[in-house]
Amino acid sequence: MQQRRQPMIERFRARPMGAWGWLFFALLLAGPDWAQAASASGSQVLQHFFHQVRTVQAQFTQVVADRNGQVIKRAAGTVWIQRPGKFRWVYAGSNGQTIVSDGTQVWLYDPALQQVTIQPLGKTLGSTPAALIAGKDILASRFVIRDLGSKDGLRWVELQPKGGQDQGFTAVRLGFDARGALQEMRMEDAFQQETVLTFHDIRLNQPIAAQEFQFTPPAGVDVLKP
Question: Closest Cα partner for 25 from 204, 211, 213?
């Protein structure tokens, strides 16, 4: 049993957008004021999102590459986010992980390990894409925010964790299109792996059922509370 428990968190952290390791994705979507976003900087678009977007529902694809650019993992799934602090991140497939926050605690369910890990939201708030997006502010107190200009038709902004904070990644880069919609998210971890997330079928500020942010561990699985 002990051998199964240790890999749980390590596996999660090793997948940049896999789970505790990444969940910043709601940002990725732009605010509704396209006219304003068209002339805004990357930082202004980011701020606009936090001020205007309260819920996000989207499909995502995820590609993880090693330090040499070789693809080591592909995945897809669905995300629901309700700020502040609530999210559900589901990877497709029978062994796909599920990460759920009710605004107070976070459940990480790994069917392959038959384990559910439960942690306070505060311990994961900066370490996953979903948690980052579900935050209540622009995160300036924990991240250095920097405009990167335009490239490949997108306007880019970078978030770097401030010193002494273990966020599970070393940098996050967000790419917004001309309308201000977030099209791409790139996250780098301490192993120099890069996770690239793209979002589609995005719905903003639509009601989300309360049960999406609740989780009951399946019968027979190990429930861990580190």
Answer: 204
